[in-house]
Structure to design on (556 residues):
């Protein structure tokens, strides 16, 4: 048993200063020669137009812009739209007319001449994908005070259409303060409006990294309508030291308040203080030592997956109001708990050794649960429970390796993300790999539900970086984000939409560059379009700046 376990993880950023000692100069001269002498003279070329008319143009259409100084460099300049060369039809010293390239996407227009570049306005390319101007999130998620950044890691949509967002942030839509933060959890309406109606999050999570990386709504059983949250924290809606009793996972009521119970099982070392005969503790009495990446609820069981070494549970008969004593069981990376938080020893547990098997020999980056309750884990491991598992493994309901999963040689590099679409029954993985099951696969692979490679998907080379997130839309098209800049020979700057067979979807790749990383997605559909909310660590998309959340419209 452990006494007074406290979870206080701090990130320390050490900034090392370099001292430059400047000696005395022996020269008697004053100023040195001009370091820029002999450089090229700047050409007198420029764009007069600051915007385009119309504001949104179609690929293949003709566009006119006002310029200056072109005639001096007749036939010695080129014009580009977001890195794609455009055909120039006519020009004078004050105007230029060109054809917007068929493969162009939203971005700047510029002219190059004599190895110099001159930038003009943003050319917004029309198509079937666009930022949703009706989405009401403006300032997004950020961090004030002590912190190391911000991000939204997980989402869940309620039956009334409202959405709960969780992550590492304490200020959403400029509503958080240091005294009253949005501690890793907020609610927005169906159209993105920040709302506290019907919820009581208080100050959210405290302790650890103050991060919620996973949220699940319980949809059946005695706890129906409540929520499981997990990540890195040790308290909820409290900064009191003696309330830091949560082991990185807990349960919330339907209104977002902490689900608690009153107990008299504790001891009171000072009987004269009678009010300490009773304590209020989290109703979910279970947790881990470490970090939880994903959680799942299946039936009356709660699954936790992450980077942790042990399962812990408050032992109330030896605990007091101010100090808690914990039972601890060595559980590596995976644990299954009952609805009261107690550990289920029929999953990923060796009864003889009284601890878990070894698990993965590397980190688990992501996971999904299939409809039958089986887990699929991905990461940078090559074995699981000492059995071969090249960065992906499926587990049986007892936590053992499911050898019927047809992953074969799987990925030859790390897998970062995994998504499953129940409508199409396809699994999509992304990562730092070039082959999957021995076949060329450039940082993206599409799998069947049994783990075999979907041979109908013929992906092209992804270059300039890699895919870090991909998900199949209900239409079958595949949304991909990452750090890449090309797909085959096509310029795609961190965002693209593919057909189910791997070809770029015609008219769906008009948007400009994407910067950041997506962790979760919500798709809602109507007769005309899909609306897709993307969350993560997102800073820019389609020439606009964001703070970790945006919504796009995808026409049908």
């Amino acid at each position: 048993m452990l006494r007074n376990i406290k979870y206080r993880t701090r990130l320390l950023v050490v900034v090392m200063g370099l001292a430059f000692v400047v000696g005395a100069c022996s020269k008697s001269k004053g100023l040195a020669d001009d370091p820029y002498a002999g450089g090229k003279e700047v050409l007198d070329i420029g764009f007069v137009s600051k915007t385009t008319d119309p504001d949104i143009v179609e690929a293949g259409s003709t566009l006119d812009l006002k310029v200056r100084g072109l005639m001096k460099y007749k036939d010695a300049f080129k014009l580009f739209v977001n890195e794609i060369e455009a055909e120039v039809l006519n020009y004078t010293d004050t105007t230029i007319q060109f054809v917007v390239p068929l493969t162009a996407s939203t971005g700047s227009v510029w002219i190059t001449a004599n190895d110099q570049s001159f930038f003009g306005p943003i050319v917004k390319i029309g198509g079937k994908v666009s930022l949703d101007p009706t989405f009401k999130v403006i300032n997004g998620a950020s961090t004030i005070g002590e912190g190391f950044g911000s991000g939204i890691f997980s989402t869940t949509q309620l039956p009334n259409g409202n959405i709960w967002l969780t992550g590492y942030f304490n200020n959403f839509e400029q509503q958080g303060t240091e005294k009253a933060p949005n501690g890793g959890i907020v609610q927005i309406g169906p159209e993105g409006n920040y709302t506290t109606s019907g919820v009581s999050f208080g100050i959210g999570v405290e302790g650890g990294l103050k991060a919620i990386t996973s949220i699940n709504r319980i949809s059946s059983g005695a706890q129906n309508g409540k929520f499981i949250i997990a990540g890195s924290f040790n308290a909820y809606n409290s900064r009191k030291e003696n309330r830091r009793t949560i082991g990185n996972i807990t349960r919330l009521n339907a209104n977002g308040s902490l689900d608690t119970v009153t107990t008299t099982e504790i001891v009171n070392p000072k009987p004269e203080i009678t009010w300490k005969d009773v304590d209020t503790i989290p109703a979910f009495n279970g947790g881990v030592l470490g970090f939880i990446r994903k959680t799942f609820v299946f039936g009356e069981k709660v699954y936790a997956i992450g980077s942790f070494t042990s399962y812990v549970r408050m032992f109330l008969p030896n605990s007091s109001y101010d100090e808690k004593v914990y039972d601890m069981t060595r559980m590596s990376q995976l644990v299954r708990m009952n609805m009261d938080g107690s550990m289920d020893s029929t999953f990923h547990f060796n009864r003889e050794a009284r601890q878990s098997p070894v698990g993965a020999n590397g980190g688990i980056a992501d996971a999904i649960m299939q409809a039958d309750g089986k887990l699929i884990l991905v990461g940078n491991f090559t074995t699981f429970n000492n059995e071969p598992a090249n960065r992906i493994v499926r587990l049986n309901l007892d936590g053992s390796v499911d050898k019927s999963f047809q992953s074969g040689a799987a990925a030859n590099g790390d897998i970062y993300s995994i998504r499953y679409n129940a409508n199409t029954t396809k699994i999509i993985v992304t990562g730092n790999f070039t082959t999957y099951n021995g076949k060329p696969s450039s940082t993206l692979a599409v799998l069947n539900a049994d783990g075999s490679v979907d041979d109908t998907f013929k992906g092209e080379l992804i270059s300039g970086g890699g895919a870090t997130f991909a998900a199949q839309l209900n239409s079958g098209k595949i949304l991909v984000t990452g750090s890449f800049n090309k797909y085959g020979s096509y310029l795609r700057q961190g965002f693209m939409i593919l057909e189910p067979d791997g070809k770029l979807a015609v008219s769906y790749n008009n948007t400009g560059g994407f910067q950041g990383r997506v962790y979760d997605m919500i798709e809602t559909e109507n007769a005309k379009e899909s609306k897709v909310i993307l969350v993560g660590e997102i800073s820019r998309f389609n020439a606009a700046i964001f703070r970790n959340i945006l919504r796009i419209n995808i026409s049908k």
User: Anything to note?
Assistant: The CA atoms of residues 242 and 322 lie 5 Å apart. The mean pLDDT is 92. The chain is about 0% helix and 40% strand.
